[in-house]
Amino acid sequence: MNPNPQHQPARQLRRTHPYLLNIGVLIFAFLFSVAVGSVYIPPKSVFHVLFQPILGNDPNTVPFYSTILFTVRLPHTILVCLTGAALAGSGAAYQGLFRNPLADPYLIGVASGAGLGAVVGLAIHWPATVLGWMSVPVAAFVGAVITVLLVYNLASVNHSVPTTTLILAGVAVSSFATSLTSFIMLRSKDELHRALAWLLGGSTMSGWSPVWASFPYILIGLVVLWLLSHTLNVLQFGEEQAQQLGIPVERAKLAIILAASLTTAAAVSFSGLIGFIGLIVPHAIRMIWGSDYKHIIPLSILGGGSALLLADILARVVLAPQVLPLGIITAMAGAPFFLWLLRRAKNQLYW
Amino acid sequence: METMLKVEEVSFSYNGKLILRDIHLKVHAGEVLAVVGPNGAGKTTLIRTISGVLSPQKGLIQVAGINLARLNPTQRARYLAVVPQARELPSTFTVFQTVMLGRTPYLGWLGNASAKDEQIVWRVLRSTQLEELAERRIGELSGGEQQRVLLARALAQSTPLLLLDEPTAHLDLQHQSHLLNLVRQTADECGLAVLLAIHDLNLVGLYADRVLLLVDGAVQSVGTPSEVLTKTNIERAYQVSVEVITHPKYGTPLIIPDDNGQASKDWSIPAAVENLTSTQEDHFAEAMFSSQRVFLAKNYSPLYSDERFGVKGKRG
């Protein structure tokens, strides 16, 4: 069947090893994030607390470690991890859908639209329960979908979306949404505090509620995107060829837009506006492991989780006890890393 | 002979302009039908209509007896495959990955290929002589090789009908004949019905069984190459005078442009250039420095009239 059977094991390794590596980095970042903070919890104790039912009580573990872990560190870490995975996964999908390397949730205005939706959602007095919190991502989702459809229609020329019009339409719609957001926040009184806190990065929202409220949306969105990865591959040859190869293009495009916007919206609703992750993580994955979306989507999800966790650790450590907004760190650490990768990949085709 | 493609009374209009009018055509299994005609005659529109990208306002399109209008895109892709022109391809896909996309209409939910799919892809790669290039990226290939990859992708779709949209338009002589030989060979060996839109009239006689001449969206003439590619038909369709001679080896029609009698013109150096003074000659030599300009001066002497270049012949 394969004329080069000796290449088979090598190819197999190349297929599995990026997953092992990315899962390894994610576990490391996760444990590190749980351990670091105003009180340092040694990794060994983290293990003991997490696996207490299996390992039994450890005499060296301080009792209040468990309280810190379960009420503060774990929910925060999981939320950051989910957010990074959502932003990178949807960023990869947007880049594939628009066949445009610059597409990311922020540049094309989806995040600003989700932000507007979220602020509108926050302006309504929902009870502060999980169900109340869950209405925020729904409002953000509606905002995100309206924005992406608007940008897509404004930017498309003869059934394709050129970079120039995409960015211009994205920037215009994005600033319009941002200005509306500011307007609503200025007009409101009581809700202002909640909305402002959210815009600053959602750090005031703690506990498990935001995790439970965003997890279902992010999970559904990312699973749908992963299922659509073959479609994304075929779409790289253009919509006409995709249809001739048997893809119901209009339905597939709508499904990708809805799934990517759902994940973006859920991430933005509880973590505020964090740029750059959706752009650099998928590109880094592409540069290192090639352009097959069957790998780009899951690897971006894993990589996005670890990248945002590492950025969050930096945000908490650099000026401790002060916590920096995550967006600053992602741009400050992400941009040089991205430029280094870009320079390294200069002589090879990667997009 | 089994009719694979039947097009009946198909009309398509866009923005109120009729682009295809009452098209009738048939392609049998194992037959290559070439569609020729001037730019804008509707060749590409015909292919896009048959492939289902455009839906005709009127008419019937059947492949192997099945009405295409009743099929969804996935089902349709099992009946017909399209070879587009190799332009703006995603450069990072490998040849193998690209050809594997031809199996899309047969893949399940996750798009995972079975052993059978891989087997078919390797067989197609072998028959199109792409086996050696399987792991190369398309961006690294020549235009001719890229076009062959797209042919292989269409063959991997395992359809009874193949549509090609000017596949040789940007290829050199070697790649043109290589590609069309492959198409001819597959039609002969596998009984594939082929509809080939093509510009080069001289290739038509060599590779097609029948020719359809499309002018202003309507079928002007259809038949064997020597029936259709006549001096009258071509001069009427393309509004240009031609001479038709026969291929010395195969007896197929060869079309040579006559360029409205321009060809018989005297190409000798015009008098105004011949009779220059020595200073004028220097100026002229400077002006004519590039070979392109020499060519222009020779062929279009009116452009080099005295006023334009400020040079005057001795007579002036």
Q: Show the largest interface.
A: A-B, 30 and 39 residues
CATH architecture of chain A: Orthogonal Bundle
CATH class of the largest domain in chain B: Alpha Beta
Q: Round the Cα radius of gyration of chain A to an integer and report it.
A: 21 Å
Q: Judging by the overall fold, what is the CATH architecture of the largest domain in chain B?
A: 3-Layer(aba) Sandwich
Instruction: Average the pLDDT over all residues of chain B and give the rounded result.
Output: 84
Oligomer, anyone?
heterodimer
How many structural domains are formed by the residues of chain A? 1
Q: Please tell me the overall pLDDT of chain A.
A: 81
Going across the major beta sheet of chain B, what is the strand order? Answer: 6-7-8-3-9-10
Shape of chain A: globular
Explained architecture:
The complex is a heterodimer of chains A (351) and B (316). By secondary structure, chain A is mainly alpha-helical. Chain A has one domain (7-344): ABC transporter involved in vitamin B12 uptake, BtuC, CATH 1.10.3470.10. Chain A contains 15 helices and no strands. The two termini of chain A are 30 Å apart. Chain B is α/β, with parallel strands linked by helices and 316 residues long. In chain B, helix 4 packs across helix 5 and helix 5 (143-156) packs parallel to helix 6 (173-190). In chain B, 37% of the residues are buried. The model of chain B is unreliable at 289-316 (pLDDT under 50).
